[in-house]
């Protein structure tokens, strides 16, 4: 089912792409005749298109897949995983990241971590505190199934209080919906 | 501190006339009642004494300005320009020449007198019905001079009550979170101010994140969430003494606190293993009770004014919606069924309505519905706003609003706003810094 959802998301992205190209082509036909103003419009349109494509490249559905704010606990061990709006389900990519974290934690058994759960700004403060806690716990549960003992993991939720991106747009929000694994010692 | 300075002595002079003027506050008032607030008269000796103590040139005028400002912001009254007044304050207070006040279209008139008596401030005021040419009310207070702003608020409450038939909300305070700094690293402090923005005071230093302060309806206690030592927990703060303590001993985050109407319990959420449930703690017995037990997120609880019911939001249906249950957690019923997400329910002090935040198609709304979920009415729409809190008379809601940032992520602000239950009279409440999470106190006097 989850795979289904991802496929659906991917399809959405692709179809969005098609629609955009379609729009662009249509516009070009119209451009032939009229003058400067039109070309200007065309340019901004193109800009918009590339912007949207850029977002599309960094998001799958509305889950962030880029590396913009990501830090590394060790070589190849990303520190954070991202979530869809109002969700705390781990994506395939998130599970891969967490397996890498688990392997690193198993190899460095003296290290303890804090999992910081966050939400985007598009929710009420109190609900978001709970949502951040739920996200961090989703990550914690996964680390535990891959052999990290629960006494090495502390969970804290910041709700929407500590965004990494102060933007008010879907891409910024997607970066903010996250659980970050932070070394505690 | 508060207790000490409420040495107010009320002398009630009997009311003679029946009011002919009535202000209907149940509808949006597009024609606020024109009234004249004559500056309180003051003799020269008293004026000088108060000038020395309070550093105010004319305390009589200052008090009347507070009254004028309160009545104007209520949206129900239209205080007329003082320049048009024909009668001097001292004479008006003895016996208004009603024709003069009628001429400038005032329907009601407030007059009064300030005296300095034995180091105390004595204020008397009268409310006159200009059309009926009669006195509607006369009251006098004696208090310490530093209390002068509160005298203005109490006069405003008395006038509001006499003309609308409902209690006022001017002699009250707002506790809120003062915000500063970039959006990604906001510094937040607890702050308190009078309802009109005066006497602003910070209660914490900003060393740790603090959120969602709420007044005890029965005393000057406040409950809030603090990240002290990086452990988000519900705290109790006595604003008179400044003492703080953690509420309960929970092995995880407690949040979303509120007092029960009698002030004896705190109701809040406790988050553990990805689940948030609602708990209460009795502040006298320290007894903790679990109220909900569900794998979903149950939070933002608020009691009905009789304490028998609790409203809260939960995502047990898959999305955030509003529920009502008995105070023991039984008989849970979903009440919000409109399109979108619903959160932060707060029960009106009058008992008949629940105010809420709604998110629908990328917009945030503050609205009200009846306690069975019927009669939903959205009062205001914006990019982001939430967390309504009721004025003690249940006529006004205060909430906070955040702005959208530009493409560079700049231009963020958070401000307090108020709106009447009618959906009219939306107002920005000026604060020294950015502000969020407001909570309205009960009336300090009467």
Short note summarizing the structure:
The complex is a heterodimer of chains A (185) and B (446). By secondary structure, chain A is an alpha+beta fold. Chain A contains five helices and eight strands.
How many structurally independent domains of chain B? Answer: 2
Low-confidence runs of chain B: 1-19
Note the overall shape of chain A.
globular
Instruction: Count all strands of chain A and give the number.
Output: 8
CATH class bucket of the largest domain in chain B: Mainly Beta
The figure for the number of domains of chain A is 2
Q: How much is the average pLDDT of chain A?
A: 81
Write the layout of secondary structure elements.
The complex is a heterodimer of chains A (185) and B (446).
Chain A: H1 2-31, H2 36-58, E1 59-60, E2 63-64, E3 72-74, E4 77-78, E5 80-82, H3 92-107, E6 113-118, H4 125-145, E7 153-159, H5 170-176, E8 178-183
Parallel strand pairs in A: 6-7
Antiparallel strand pairs in A: 1-2, 3-4, 5-8, 6-8
Helix pairs in contact in A: 1-2, 3-4
Chain B: H1 2-5, E1 11-13, E2 33-37, E3 41-42, H2 44-54, H3 59-73, E4 77-79, H4 89-94, H5 98-103, E5 108-117, E6 120-129, E7 134-143, H6 148-164, E8 173-180, E9 187-194, E10 201-202, E11 210-215, E12 221-226, E13 233-238, E14 244-246, E15 254-259, E16 265-272, E17 275-282, E18 288-290, E19 298-303, E20 309-314, E21 321-326, E22 333-334, E23 341-347, E24 353-360, E25 363-370, E26 377-382, E27 384-390, E28 396-402, E29 414-420, E30 427-429, E31 434-440
Parallel strand pairs in B: 2-4, 2-5, 3-5
Antiparallel strand pairs in B: 1-7, 5-6, 6-7, 8-9, 8-31, 9-10, 11-12, 12-13, 13-14, 15-16, 16-17, 17-18, 19-20, 20-21, 21-22, 23-24, 24-25, 25-26, 27-28, 28-29, 29-30
Helix pairs in contact in B: 3-6
């Amino acid at each position: 089912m989850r795979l289904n959802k991802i496929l659906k998301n991917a399809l959405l992205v692709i179809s969005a792409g098609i629609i955009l190209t379609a729009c662009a082509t249509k516009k070009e036909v119209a451009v032939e005749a009229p003058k400067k103003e039109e070309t200007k419009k065309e340019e901004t349109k193109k800009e918009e298109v590339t912007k949207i494509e850029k977002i599309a490249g960094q998001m799958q559905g509305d889950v962030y897949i880029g590396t913009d704010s990501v830090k590394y606990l060790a070589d190849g061990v990303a520190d954070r995983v991202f979530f869809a709006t109002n969700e705390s389900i781990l994506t395939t990519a998130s599970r891969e990241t967490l397996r890498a974290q688990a392997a690193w934690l198993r190899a460095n058994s003296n290290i303890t971590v804090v999992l910081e759960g966050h939400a985007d700004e598009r929710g009420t403060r109190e609900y978001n505190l709970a949502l951040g806690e739920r996200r961090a716990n989703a990550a914690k549960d996964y680390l535990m199934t891959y052999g990290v003992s629960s006494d090495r993991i502390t969970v804290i939720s910041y709700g929407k209080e500590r965004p990494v991106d102060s933007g008010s747009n879907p891409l910024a929000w997607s970066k903010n919906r996250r659980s970050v694994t932070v070394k505690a010692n | 501190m508060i207790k000490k300075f409420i040495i107010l002595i009320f002398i009630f002079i009997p009311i003679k006339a029946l009011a002919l003027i009535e202000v209907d506050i149940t509808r949006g008032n597009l024609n606020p009642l024109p009234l004249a607030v004559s500056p309180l008269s003051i003799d020269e000796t008293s004026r000088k004494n108060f000038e020395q103590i309070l550093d105010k040139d004319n305390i009589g005028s200052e008090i009347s300005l507070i009254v004028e400002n309160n009545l104007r912001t209520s949206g129900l009254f239209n205080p007329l320009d003082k320049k048009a007044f024909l009668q001097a304050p001292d004479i008006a207070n003895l016996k208004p020449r009603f024709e003069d006040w009628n001429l400038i279209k005032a329907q009601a008139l407030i007059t009064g007198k300030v005296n300095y008596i034995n180091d105390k401030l004595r204020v008397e005021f009268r409310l006159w019905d200009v059309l009926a040419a009669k006195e509607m009310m006369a009251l006098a207070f004696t208090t310490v001079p530093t209390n002068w702003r509160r005298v203005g608020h109490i006069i405003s409450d008395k006038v509001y009550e006499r003309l609308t038939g409902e209690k006022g909300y001017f002699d009250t305070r707002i506790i809120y979170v003062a915000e500063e700094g970039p959006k990604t690293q906001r510094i937040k402090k607890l702050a308190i101010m009078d309802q009109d923005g005066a006497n602003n005071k910070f209660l914490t230093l900003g060393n740790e994140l603090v959120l969602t302060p709420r007044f005890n309806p029965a005393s000057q206690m406040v409950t809030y969430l603090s990240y002290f030592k990086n452990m988000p927990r519900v705290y109790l703060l006595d604003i008179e003494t400044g003492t703080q303590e953690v509420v309960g001993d929970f092995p995880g985050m407690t949040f979303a606190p509120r007092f029960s109407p009698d002030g004896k319990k705190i109701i809040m959420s406790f988050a553990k293993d990805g689940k948030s449930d609602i708990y209460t703690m009795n502040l006298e017995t320290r007894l903790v009770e679990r109220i909900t037990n569900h794998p979903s997120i149950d939070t933002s609880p608020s009691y009905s004014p009789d304490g028998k019911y609790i409203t809260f939001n939960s995502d047990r249906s898959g999305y955030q919606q509003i529920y009502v249950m008995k105070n023991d957690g039984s008989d849970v019923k979903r009440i919000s069924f409109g399109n979108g997400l619903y959160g932060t329910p707060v029960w009106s002090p009058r008992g008949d309505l629940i105010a809420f935040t709604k998110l629908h198609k990328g917009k945030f709304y503050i609205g009200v519905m009846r306690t069975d979920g019927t009669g939903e009415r959205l009062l205001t729409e914006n990019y982001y706003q939430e967390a309504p809190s009721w004025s003690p008379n249940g006529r006004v809601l205060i909430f906070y609003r955040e702005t959208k940032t530009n493409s560079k992520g700049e231009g963020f602000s958070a401000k307090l706003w108020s709106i009447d239950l009618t959906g009219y009279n939306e107002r920005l409440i000026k604060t020294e810094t950015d502000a969020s999470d407001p909570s309205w106190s009960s009336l300090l006097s009467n």
